User: Which sequence fits this backbone?
């Protein structure tokens, strides 16, 4: 399998984003934007990891969109003091860096 580190980073980011979104729903209704961005980020990270795992050749657009969503999710999560938001932002930053590195 090509790109195992990037695939693992994408999957890790998706897991943290899903956890953040689920935890945010139960904690604070003010976190609606956080929930939406975390779920969108998780969905795109999962899809991108799947495309890379099957060695699909045209992944640049998905990786670029993943970078965009990870940055957006990071910015939203950094607004909140919840532990799950802090972990999600950290995972999104790592994912952004890995995706940028992959495209370089």
Assistant:
């Amino acid at each position: 399998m090509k790109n195992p580190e990037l695939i693992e980073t994408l999957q890790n980011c998706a897991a943290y984003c899903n956890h953040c979104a689920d935890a945010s729903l139960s904690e604070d209704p003010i976190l609606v934007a956080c929930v939406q961005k975390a779920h969108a980020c998780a969905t795109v990270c999962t899809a991108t990891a799947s495309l890379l795992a099957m060695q699909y050749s045209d992944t640049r657009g998905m990786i670029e969109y993943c970078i965009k969503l990870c940055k957006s999710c990071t910015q939203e999560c950094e607004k909140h003091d919840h532990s799950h938001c802090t972990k999600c932002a950290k995972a999104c930053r790592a994912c952004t860096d890995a995706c940028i590195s992959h495209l370089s």
The mean pLDDT is 88. The chain has four helices and no strands. The domain at 4-103 is CATH 1.20.1270.360 (Substrate Binding Domain Of Dnak; Chain:A; Domain 2).
